[in-house]
Amino acid sequence: MKKRLRVLVAKPGLDGHDKGAKVVCHALREAGMEVIYSGLHKSVAEIVSTALQEDVDALGLSILSGAHLVYAQKVLKALRQRQADDIVVFVGGVIPDRDIEKLRALGVKGVFPGGTPLAATAEFLRQEFGDKPV
Amino acid sequence: MGVAKYTRDEKDRVVEVEYLSGIKVKPLYRPEDLEAAGFDYGRDLNDPGEYPFTRGIHAQGYRSRRWTMRQYSGFGSPEQSNERFKLLIANGQNGLNVAFDLPSQMGLDSDDPRAEGEVGRVGMAVDSLRDFEIAFRDIALDRIGTGLTINAVASIMLAMYQAVAEKYGFSKKVISATPQNDILKEIIGRGAWIYPPAAGVKLIGDTIEYSVKEMPKANPVSICGYHIRESGATPAQEIAYAIQIANTYIEEVLERGLDIDDFVGRFSFNINIYGNMWETIAKFRAAKKMWARNLVERYGAGQKNKKVLFFRGLFGGGGSGLTKQQPLNNIVRGAYYGLAAALGGAQTTALCSYDEAYTIPTPQSALLSLRTLQIIMEEVGLRDTVDPLAGSYFIETITREMEELIEKEMAEIDAYGGMLKAVEDGYVQRKVARQEYEFQKGLERGDYVKVGVNKYVMDEDGEQEVELHEYDEAGAAAKIAGLKELRRRRDGRAVARSLKELDLTVRRGGNVMPALVKCCRAYATVGEMAGIFKDVFGEFKEPGIF
């Protein structure tokens, strides 16, 4: 049986701006994926446990406070520690262009700054999981 | 972030215009439109300064008083914030609007592990009275009013503001603080909540009750349609929800036996300015009238003093209207948003800076926003006459339509069981999130024009025009070191005593403000005070909002 992609969209830390995260949730769900939304103010440990418990294929972090490098690094490290670095991590939010390469260097597979078209995230995930039809 | 939905024919002529709130605009308005709407000058408008205040609350409008400009500022350390405050005041700003960093907004001290990477990032880091002493040094707190953009722990910051003012020789009777203090909008649209909504409403009741008795010039609550609009609400919903939130706070205070006229005049509002200019103007004018009517019809307010019916507001911001693409275009947008605020009769205003889609504004961009507002108010003629658009067939017709839409949205919340329940259940959150998604889809389809985003798009080479605000790692480390030093040097017994009193007060359901003032004076930290609230009230569990 073909598996639907499971995606966790998470809001790490204290930033409360969740409009973008919820818009992405709606867009991914409409693209046929199973979407779990973490809710606000989640710690890195909570996000990583949810990702493991829910057995997600991908994890999107939404960060608008400017702390994207800090959180991306922590989440990726925690995933590696729990042997879950096959989970594809992507990041959205207020991301200056100059940080995009830094995020990629940390192991973030997709970066979606403000102004990204709605379909881009789903499109990215489809390409990442080309071998796993959604 | 677009302005209206335009349907065009094959020759690119506009055949239909529909505003976000649902108002359909005709190509021509004539006297018959006002007749059809049953327009009556005395009932619908009346003179400025007279009920229902559609034309504003001051008889002479901007002739008697310019608007108050209150640019949102404050970042990094209290020292840097103090410097920025003085820069803005030296350049003619007449009120402050303090931004707090996220740990402070969430009731966490700078050395809390959850604060890592966020100390001083999006606003000023405040741990104790020591920080306010630095931030407000050499500022005439009897003349400069201060907006405090703080919600979940607004009671703590209001107490701290009183403590710092007293320290500098200003009595609590003369200082004017406006904490945002609107927890329901925080849950709907801004996200800096901690405690369950009912506990949050209780704390707001405490600050209002305390202000009435002790701080006569404070405006203890500023209800923010602003963030609800930013989250996807229509302009009509923005006003309807703001009024219904205010009603929730009013009822909390009425239950304590206070007379409506003794406190409701202190309420103020924070309303957004982006979007279609005419719809925005109609929204402001309708809001003033609907608020006054709401107070009279629901609560019998205004018996003793009609001034309590004033819709006093900061009409400003416009963040969601600004774009990352072609950022200099935001300077132009800002000018039109400011104009809409002025034509809508804003008493207080602020303008987002053009670089905010990227970063915390630089001193230059913050100053440019201030200058924009000054040009609108003093150079191009906005002080000439009060409410210049009054009587326009078009404006008055859509103002009436806006009122009806606001009424309908308010009725929906009443039918649901009130705003507290609608927020506790996530009803409003789900609704605006869905609308926002649909709106974004409409934007991508090109239903709404956004210059530089879906029309007149250019290939852009990075972000050269914008200077980025750097996160100050060393500053954060210094802040934490300073806090540790404070903990060592303060009188630990006095701190413990004051916290114990706060704990007892919270547990017996008393008004927390006097105990908070004592804690602040003893240099108890925000984290220590907020921690007591958390122990007693618990934390809010978000309902399924997606």
Task: Supply database-style keywords.
heterodimer, A: alpha/beta, 5 strands, B: 546 residues, alpha/beta, TIM Barrel, 5-stranded parallel beta sheet, 4-stranded parallel beta sheet, 48% helix
What is the element string of chain A, with H for helices and E for strands?
EHEHEHEHEH
Which CATH C-level class of chain B is it? Alpha Beta
CATH-defined superfamily of chain A = Cobalamin-binding domain
- Tell me which oligomeric state these chains represent: heterodimer
Write the layout of secondary structure elements.
The complex is a heterodimer of chains A (about 130) and B (about 550).
Chain A: E1 6-10, H1 19-30, E2 34-37, H2 44-53, E3 58-63, H3 68-81, E4 88-93, H4 97-106, E5 110-113, H5 119-128
Helix pairs in contact in A: 2-3, 3-4
Chain B: E1 4-8, E2 14-19, E3 24-25, H1 31-36, H2 41-45, E4 68-69, E5 72-73, H3 78-90, E6 95-99, H4 102-105, H5 129-135, E7 145-149, H6 154-167, E8 177-179, H7 183-190, H8 197-214, E9 221-224, H9 225-230, H10 235-254, H11 260-263, E10 267-272, H12 277-299, E11 313-317, H13 329-343, E12 348-351, H14 363-378, H15 393-416, H16 419-424, H17 427-445, H18 473-489, H19 492-507, H20 513-521, H21 526-537
Parallel strand pairs in B: 4-12, 5-6, 6-7, 7-8, 9-10, 10-11, 11-12
Antiparallel strand pairs in B: 1-2, 2-3
Describe the overall structure.
The complex is a heterodimer of chains A (134) and B (546). Chain A is an alpha/beta fold. Chain A has one domain (6-128): 3-Layer(aba) Sandwich (Rossmann fold), CATH 3.40.50. Chain A is 42% helix and 19% strand. Chain A contains 5 helices and 5 strands, in the order βαβαβαβαβα. In chain A, strands 2-1-3-4-5 form a 5-stranded parallel β-sheet, sandwiched between helices. In chain A, helix 4 (97-106) links the parallel strand 4 and strand 5 (110-113). In chain A, helix 3 runs parallel beside helix 4. Chain B is of the alpha/beta class and 546 residues long. Chain B contains 21 helices and 12 strands. In chain B, strand 7, helix 6 (154-167) and strand 8 form a beta-alpha-beta unit. Classes of the chains: A alpha/beta (134), B alpha/beta (546). The A-B interface holds A 11, 13-19, 22-23, 25-27, 35, 37, 39-41, 43, 65-67, 70-71, 94, 96-98, 113-115, 117-119 and B 102-103, 105-106, 108, 114-118, 121-122, 186, 189-193, 230-232, 323-325, 357-359, 433-434, 436-437, 440-441, 444, 453, 462-463, 468, 471, 542, 545-546.
